[in-house]
Amino acid sequence: MSSSGTKEPIRIVITGAAGQIAYSLIHQICNGDVFGKDQPVILHLLDITPMMGVLQGVVMEIEDTSLPLVKGAIPTDSEETAFKDVDVALLVGAMPRKEGMERKDLLNANVKIFKSQGTALDKFAKKSVKVLVVGNPANTNCYILAHYAPSIPRENFSCLTRLDHNRAKAQIANRLKVSPENVKNVTIWGNHSSTQFPDVRSATVNVNGKDTPVYDAVKDDNWLKNDFISTVQKRGAAVIAARKLSSAMSAAKAICDHMRDWWNGTKDNEWVSMGVISDGSYDIEKGLVFSYPVQIKDGKISIVQGLKIDEWSREMIEKTQKELVEEKNDAVKATSSD
Ligand code: NAD
Ligand code: LMR
Prior knowledge:
The protein is an alpha/beta fold and about 350 residues long. It contains twelve helices and 14 strands. The site of (2S)-2-hydroxybutanedioic acid has 11 residues, from helix 10.
């Protein structure tokens, strides 16, 4: 707090700031929807040099929103300026996939961005910086970023699987004709890819004031084990096929949900999904960036322990882990050769 009793501004870097996700994201941050209605912000907006003209337009629009929490908006193509003293890093800037591609097809093009930005983060950001990687393939980009930022604590790194989490809630809510807020404790395990395991075995839905296991409420195990899972796994591709662009509005909303929960904590007895650096929980390779069920208190993320994993779930989890190990090995090769 400053002497006047108002909070000091926090510095937030948004990369890919001239892109489509950033365009949906920036207003929500400036409006206090993520870090609080009393939390002033200074935005560091990074994009590549050819996008500086477009970025100037974004800055004009930020000014024109006339929002009182905005204490500065710094457009830049310099990683040093972008990462200097930041409290929060939202790493969106990367190439999006086109129709027919898997997210891992972006690996060669995008992973080098995260090597370079990891090095800059390590050098210039606050050591307490909270980092969220959005650019795809998000888990593996986060792995590389963290590798090149060794001075920042491992628990400060995360990648976005909240969009998948929200998609899973929405599918269950639609099926049961209830509001998504009534669906709790879904889990996305593993990679933000078509091997992810959207798991509702511990999830509940509030029907007529009573929390009921999703399996009991849906009463269709076949749908839950097949169509539900593949719809969530392939939702990103379905949006691309329809829009000819990858999801942006829902991605920006998920970024806000992820960061708001990290900043303020999760509700008692509820968890959310986040890609975090594995500590070996649920027999996942230590160090992989893996999506887990997590709870957050006082800014500290804890992986929910003790959930029952049956044989079928173990196979689903193994499959997504295997893909992440392969991606990690490819990414390490791609970044060590330059
Ligand atoms: P976009 O093409 O509209 O914007 C990306 C921006 O990043 C562009 O302005 C580009 O110039 C910029 N950029 C490229 N290289 C950069 C660099 N080195 N430094 C800074 N900026 C750079 O794309 P988008 O729709 O905003 O999507 C961005 C990324 O987010 C894509 O990789 C997409 O696949 C991914 N995404 C992830 C999720 C998720 O849930 N994890 C959801 C949606 C999209
Ligand atoms: C999504 O899940 O919508 C994003 O990761 C974009 C994509 O490539 O699917």
